[in-house]
Design brief:
The chain is an alpha+beta fold. Helix content is about 30%, strand content about 20%.
Length: about 240
């Protein structure tokens, strides 16, 4: 799923995503293969649309096979800095689960709502479970989302949230590793003011295991009890 502020298909230039078609094709193929083996869960779509290519609970049914194995061996990576300007790599979080959301601080709706849901998810777990999760907000707008800006933004939401940013190249590499969609809208005086500088982007939670391997994706728009149950199930 991608967040497009109400439009089904985005306009604009993709940033830093060479081979995007191949990457997203592989990702969607793996997701569809897993949906054949698991109970399909609807995902947050664009605008008011729902699509079936979203919240897939990897391995919920104990199924196996080459495609499922390929998904479970997928290990996204990043080399960024956090809101304290400290270097952060995926390997730094080994031993903890990672719950990752890609977005940007100027996003007017989906991002703050999803981060609010992430906070509620943590609050819905017992202390031990919550402490075993690294809740990560990976900015797709590094030019605006500096470490200092992320510190102010996330500090007001929840001090447990870990913000990640970096250079354009570093962020693009991270986005590619997560097989996510990101498209910055070009400057256009004809667009409404609130759409100037908009960034369309994938908008769901990635859950990675204690070794940094992909486990599942979760739809932030699902009812909170359902999300908490799915998260607990996939953390076993």
């Amino acid at each position: 799923m991608a967040h497009h502020h109400g439009r089904l298909m985005p306009r604009g230039q993709r940033i830093g995503l060479p081979g995007f078609g191949v990457a997203i094709g592989i990702f969607c193929g793996l997701m569809l293969a897993m949906m054949a083996a698991a109970n399909p869960v609807m995902a947050h779509g664009t605008g008011h649309k729902k699509t079936p290519a979203g919240s897939v609970m990897a391995g919920d049914d104990g199924g196996s096979g080459a495609d499922t194995a390929a998904v479970n061996s997928w290990q996204p990576s990043f080399d960024l800095v956090d809101q304290r300007n400290q270097p952060r790599r995926a390997s730094d979080f080994q031993g903890r689960f990672m719950l990752v959301f890609l977005g940007y601080t100027a996003c007017p709706d989906v991002c703050p709502a999803s981060l609010g849901t992430m906070k509620q998810l943590l609050n819905g777990l017992d202390k031990g479970q919550a402490a075993s999760i690294a809740p990560i907000f990976l900015s797709v707008d590094p030019a605006s989302d500096t470490p200092a800006h992320l510190a102010n933004y996330l500090g007001a939401l929840d001090p447990r949230l870990i913000g990640l940013t970096g250079s354009e190249g570093q962020v693009a590499a991270a986005v590619k590793s997560f097989k996510a969609y990101v498209a910055r809208q070009p400057a256009d005086a004809k667009l409404p003011k609130d759409e100037q500088g908009r960034v369309d982007h994938t908008a769901f939670f990635y859950l990675l295991d204690r070794q940094g391997r992909f486990v599942s994706i979760l739809d932030p728009t699902q009812p909170l009890p359902k999300l908490i149950a799915a998260l607990k199930l996939n953390m076993r």
